[in-house]
Amino acid sequence: MLKRRSCKRNADWDWRPGVHKSTVGIVVLSVAVALTATGCSGKEAGGKPPIKIGIIGPMSGPLAVLGISQQNSIQVEIDRLNAAGGIDGAQLQLVTRDSGLDPGKAVQAATELAGDQQIKLVVGPSLTAFYNAAKGVFEQNKKINCQPGVASGSFAELGYGFRSQDATELDVAKALGYLKSKGAKNVGLIYEGDDTGKSVDAILAKEAAGAGLTYLGFQSTRPDDQSHSAYMDAFKDAEAIFYSSNVGGAKTLAAAGAAGYKGILIGAGSGAQNISFIEGAGDAARGIVFPAPNYQYPTRDREQWRPGYRKHIEAVEQKYGVNTGPKTGATSPKGTALAADCVFAYAEAVKAAGGTDPDKVAAAMEKLDLAADTTPSGNAIKPGQAHEFYGEQDIRLYQWDKDDKGWFTRELPN
Amino acid sequence: MTLQAWIDGVFTGSIYALVALSLAIVYQPTRVMNFAQGEALILGAVVGYQVISLGKLGWVVAILATLALATLMGVLSERMIMLPVRLSGSRFAWIVATLAAALIFQSIFTLGYRDVDALRPAPMAEGGFTLAGEQVSWQIVLTVAIALAVMAGYDLLLRRSTYGRAIRAASHNPGTAVLMGIPVQRIIVLSFVVATVLSALAGLLAAPVLFIGPAAGLIFTIKGFTAAVIGGVGSPRGALAGGLIVGVLDSVVRTEINATAGNLVVFGLLALILLVYPSGLFGKPMEAH
């Protein structure tokens, strides 16, 4: 309102003696236009400056597809919210920072965005090591942070950090239940020797016996392994093998295919939903099982998709298209609905908190209870004090298969 | 100790040996250790993926395309590396020049195939056989056989042919070689081309079995470099021995102990060999300097 008044006063401005009225008029008009184009038009309809949402992720390099997918889904959700009037009377704007594969860049971007008062929510940085390096910055600056790309570790001790991804513990618990139902007697783990691999190893060492399974141990892999056949050889008599959620998982599947492995191959996380798995492993991926939050895209029957998920995915398809595996023809949307959940949940929390004060918003986020039909991911969001968006009931089991129409997944009964 | 670990080790070792041989071919007349050598291997994998997997044009077209593109890449690499080396006059220019070439090629491959984790075409030879209860694919047998044949052929070429004598003369003393009428510059360009073609063929043959990503070139360079130093830089027999030592040792230790121990043992051995045999197992003191 203040700026609008000052604009009007500029339009009445005429105090110089001897200046021709029409010249004055042109000057005044020019000034008015200039002011309108700068300060005055900086206001949104509601009169509030825009709320900026930051995303930090790999937008370049080998993992760019992850960061760009997150960015696309967040932009689609922002567009939807803006079309509905924004949040708290303000429009939303996305600010993107590329971390590449450099943790230093991720921390630098986190510091920049956490210190910017116009940024109210930061999504990312993805990858556990990057996030672990950056999360302290968000806590110190009381910046609401949402994480759709970190599976291991706890968020319960964080004041402002929330996870919108399936936690490793939930995935492994679901998978162990499946193995028990199939009557498997033992299981081995082939995973990268990183934080997530060690976390899965610790969970299996603790929980496998409870599911009636003997844990055969952890074959820790390296990023420079060009084949996993040696690791597969160690577990050739195992009744089940957990494979990695990363590219290493596809190496394991390929090695299992080459070795003619007949046991159960099950994901220790939801990474196998990515079509890069199918591209890398080829037909060896047929029949593999993986736990994941709602991911109905490859199940084909859109009528069965949850309404919020379908609306979001179809908006992503319309704006950005789909990824198509060049070798296999498998498809996936160019978006990550779990990242859109961050913005969706934040908007709901701001509404409940009556503003963007980070303490009030964090408290409101803890109390959210959003139905699965309404969210972009198709999962219920109920963070609670654990700061986990999704619970055990949101984790499902999917199985990849292929027919004459191409690759698809089927959801396995609980 | 499992047979599978040995099979894997011999296979990857033969690939490392071809990279080590390529490094030696460039090193002999130029005294430049080409850190961009692994990118030629990626070129072979890229061609295999593009021509065989996506284009469905088969192995013959893939081999011809690899030969053509690797020749072009070899000529380009020589210009990108040797020109700055000659113009700068710095004794360290080759480090920056080869690393820059590696990063440029890596960026090109990553930009072109950023969504592809593994450039994996269908194998040239489908199927395999069982050896003492372990599965061995024909592609592995074929790759090892071709690698051995190439190394034996290059060893013969180096010792028995005019080209080989010219390379050896150029590597002993380029100035004198020029005075004797040997076209040293042409030899250098040819060396880059031959080295690039060999590495690219290694990539093409290995891609159906290994997981070769578009950004994996430097890993193969490091492994090939280690193999070359262990075996003795400049010696085809040394490249073979070094490649097999690196491949088998890494695979066996990784299987028997753990993945981290594999690298520890390989690089520990490298340090030990440099201490006892500064010129490598098969290298001559002159060739190591």
What is the gist of this entry?
The complex is a heterodimer of chains A (414) and B (289). Chain A has 414 residues and is α/β, with parallel strands linked by helices.
Characterize the structure shown:
The complex is a heterodimer of chains A (414) and B (289). With 414 residues, chain A is of the alpha/beta class. Chain A has 3 domains: 2-42, no CATH class; 51-166 and 336-394, Response regulator (Rossmann fold, 3-Layer(aba) Sandwich), CATH 3.40.50; 169-292, Rossmann fold. Helix content of chain A is 40%, strand content 18%. Chain A has helices at 2-11, 21-37, 64-83, 103-114, 128-140, 168-181, 195-207, 229-234, 247-259, 275-281, 307-320, 337-353, 358-366; strands at 51-57, 92-98, 119-123, 144-147, 161-163, 186-192, 214-221, 240-243, 264-267, 289-292, 322-324, 331-333, 396-403, 406-412. In chain A, strands 2-1-3-4-5 form a 5-stranded parallel beta sheet, with helices on both faces. In chain A, strand 6, helix 7 and strand 7 form a beta-alpha-beta unit. In chain A, helix 1 (2-11) runs antiparallel to helix 2 (21-37), helix 3 crosses helix 11 and helix 12 crosses helix 13 (358-366). Chain B is an all-alpha fold and 289 residues long. Chain B has one domain. Chain B is built from 11 helices and 2 strands. Chain B has helices spanning 3-30, 37-54, 58-88, 93-112, 138-160, 162-172, 174-179, 184-206, 217-231, 236-256, 259-276; strands at residues 128-131, 134-137. A two-stranded antiparallel ribbon of chain B has the order 1-2. In chain B, strand 1 (128-131) and strand 2 (134-137) form a beta hairpin. Chain B starts with a helix and ends in a 13-residue tail after the last helix. The model of chain B has no long low-confidence stretch (mean pLDDT 88). The A-B interface holds A 61-62, 64-65, 193, 219-222, 224-227, 229-231, 233-234, 247, 250-251, 254, 258-260, 276, 279-280, 282, 323, 326-327 and B 2, 4-5, 7-8, 12, 49, 53-54, 110, 114-118, 120, 134-135, 137, 206, 209-216, 219, 251, 254-255, 258-260, 262-263.
